[in-house]
Write a structure and sequence with these properties.
It is a single chain. The protein has two helices and 16 strands. By secondary structure, it is mainly β. The chain has one domain: Jelly Rolls (Sandwich). Strand 9 and strand 10 form a beta hairpin. The chain is globular, with a radius of gyration of 22 Å. The N and C termini lie far apart (about 80 Å).
C-alpha cells in the first residue's frame, strides 16, 4: 500500500473510532464524573428545551424585583441553610447535596419576603445512586416569615420524588384547609422544570413549564401571609436516604405591577383537610 493510502486508511480508522466512542457516551449519558462512578450511579440524558422556559417571559411580568442566578462562589451570604448536607453554588446552580444520614436539607433567602407577587425557579433533581436508600422528596415552596406551623400556612409551588410520575402543588391555611393538585411530568433524572406561582389578594395561580395549570380563588385558600421562598429536600425520619442533589439554575421574584398579557383562567384545586405534623 502506498504511503498516502496508508495515511488515508489510518485517518478513516481514527474517525470511525471517535464516532463509536461518541455514540457510546451518548447512549450511556456519560459525563466527566463517570471516571469516579460507583455501581448504580445515574447520569441523566440531555433533554431538548423549548425557549423561553419560564412563565415570566410568556406572561410578560417585566423585570425581576429580586433574583439570584447563582453565578458567584461561595453562595451569597443572604441564604440561610440547614446544618445537614451541603448547600453550595456549583456550575452556576444552587446545589443542595444530601447524603444517607443528612436529614432534611433546606436553603432559604433572608433578603426576600412578600405577601403578594410572583415567584419562579428552574429546578432539577439528580439522584447520585438509585440502588440504595429511600428517595428524598423535594420542595420548591413559600413558607411564612413568622411561625412555620408545620407547613399549615405554606404554599407548595412544586413537590415530588424521583420515584413518582407527577409533581404536586398545594396551599394551606389555618385552621386546616388544604387545596392541592397534581401534574403529570417527565421527572427524568437531571431534567430541568420551571415552576412558578402568582399570589394576589384574590387568587393564587400555579405555572408548570410556563403554562398556567390551576387558579384558586376561594377565600379559604387566601391567607394574607408574608412569605419567603425556600428549597427543601425532605428526609424520612430514621431512614437511610439516597445520595441526591437538588439544583436550581435561578430563582426570581416579580411584583404584580404588570398584569398578565395572557389569561390565567384554569381549573380550581382539589379541596381537602390538612393533617400535617412536625
Amino acid at each position: 500500500m502506498a504511503p498516502r493510502d496508508r495515511r488515508r486508511a489510518l485517518r478513516c480508522a481514527v474517525a470511525l473510532l471517535l464516532l463509536a466512542l461518541a455514540g457510546s457516551a451518548s447512549a450511556t449519558g456519560a459525563t466527566p464524573d463517570r471516571a469516579t462512578a460507583k455501581a448504580g450511579d445515574v447520569y441523566p440524558p440531555t433533554p431538548v428545551y423549548t425557549y423561553p422556559t419560564n412563565a415570566a417571559k410568556i406572561f410578560r411580568w417585566g423585570a425581576e424585583a429580586w433574583k439570584d442566578e447563582f453565578e458567584v462562589n461561595p453562595l451569597r451570604s443572604d441564604w440561610a441553610t440547614s446544618a445537614g448536607g451541603d448547600v453550595v453554588t456549583r456550575n452556576g446552580m444552587l446545589t443542595l447535596m444530601a447524603y444517607p444520614s443528612s436529614g432534611t436539607v433546606t436553603a432559604t433567602p433572608t433578603s426576600q419576603k412578600a405577601k403578594v407577587g410572583r415567584w419562579e425557579a428552574r429546578v432539577r433533581v439528580w439522584e447520585k445512586n438509585r440502588l440504595v436508600g429511600t428517595p428524598y422528596r423535594v420542595f420548591w415552596e413559600l413558607v411564612p416569615v413568622k411561625k412555620y406551623r408545620c407547613g399549615a400556612k405554606s404554599i407548595e409551588i412544586a413537590s415530588y420524588s424521583q420515584d413518582e410520575l407527577q409533581a404536586t402543588g398545594a396551599v394551606r391555611t389555618l385552621p386546616n384547609n388544604e387545596f392541592t393538585f397534581s401534574q403529570v411530568l417527565p421527572l427524568t433524572q437531571g431534567w430541568f422544570h420551571t415552576f412558578a406561582v402568582e399570589v394576589t389578594d384574590d387568587h393564587i395561580s400555579w405555572f408548570v413549564d410556563k403554562v398556567v395549570v390551576h387558579t384558586e380563588r376561594r377565600t379559604e385558600a387566601l391567607s394574607n401571609t408574608t412569605f419567603r421562598p425556600q428549597f427543601r429536600m425532605q428526609a424520612v425520619d430514621g431512614a437511610s436516604m439516597r445520595p441526591t442533589w437538588m439544583q436550581m439554575d435561578w430563582v426570581r421574584y416579580y411584583t404584580l405591577d404588570r398584569p398578565n398579557v395572557l389569561s390565567i383562567e384554569a381549573p380550581e384545586m382539589t379541596q381537602g383537610t390538612y393533617a400535617g405534623a412536625c
